[in-house]
Amino acid sequence: MSQIKLEDVYFSYRETPEGVLSGLNLEIRAGSFVTVIGSNGSGKSTLLKLLNGLILPDRGEVKIDGLSTKDRKNLRAIREKVSLLFQNPDNQIVGDTLELDTAFGPENLGLESEEIGRRVEKALDRVGLLDKRHLSPQALSGGEKARLGIAGVLALESSVMALDEATAMLDGDGRERVLEILLKECRENGRTIILVTHHSAETLLSDRVIVLDKGRIILDGTPKEVYREAKLLKEKGIPIPPYAELSLLLDKGEIALTGDELWHMVGGKNG
Hints:
The protein is an alpha/beta fold. The protein has helices at 44-52, 75-81, 98-108, 113-126, 142-156, 172-187, 223-226, 230-235, 242-250, 259-265; strands at residues 4-11, 21-28, 33-38, 59-64, 67-68, 82-85, 160-164, 192-196, 208-213, 216-221. The strands form two sheets. The protein has a six-stranded mixed β-sheet, sandwiched between helices. Strand 7, helix 6 and strand 8 (192-196) form a beta-alpha-beta unit. The protein starts with a strand and ends in a 6-residue tail after the last helix.
C-alpha cells in the first residue's frame, strides 16, 4: 500500500476560483525521496499543505497510510505522521528560545520531558545551532531561522517530512548540510522526504521528480527521465540543472551521469 495517495484531488483558494490543483492523482511509497518543482503558482505549496491536513481538498481524497484527511478524527494521527516545514521560517517560530521552539512539536505529542530533551538536543546539534539553544529566534539570521525550522521538523521524528523550499535561504554550504541530513533521514531512517525546491540541482539527489504546471502533474519520474524532457521544461519556464543540460547535449538526449555523480561533480553548491 502506498504511504501517500491522492485520488482525483481538486483544490482552489477563494482568490483563485479557477483552481490551484485540478484532478491530481499521485501515489508516494514509504521511504522515498521525492522533489517537487514547477513555476510559481503551480500548486507546489498547496500540495504539501494537503498532505498534512492543514487544508482539505474541495473534491477527491488525500490518504496517509490509508487515513483520509477528510475525516477530522484522523487529523491528529495524520499530523503526527506528516511534519510540515513552511516556506517562510518566521511563520513557524513559536518559542522564546531555540530550545523551546524546537520542543514545541514534541511537547504537543505528549512525550516525556526526558525524550523531548533528547530530541531537541539532537535536532539542534544536527543543524548546527546547539550552541545557540538559549538565544531568542529573533536574534538569528534568515539562514539560521531556516535551520531552526528544520530542527523543529527533525525533532518530531515523523515518518513523512514535507518541506517547502527548505534550502531557499541558505548559502551553498548550508544547503549541502541540510540535504545531507535529509538524505540520511531517508536512506538510514526510512523516512519519506517530499521537498519542494527551486534549486534544480537538488532534484538530482532524489529518487523521483514531480513537475507541476497549473495544478497538474506534467512530468513524473527519475531525474534522468524528467530531464530528458528539457524542451518541455524550458517551455514551462522551469530551469534544469546546467550539468544535466550539458550531459544531455553530450549524450544526445541521454543523461550520462547519475544524479549523485552530477551533484558531487560540482560540490552540490550551484544550480
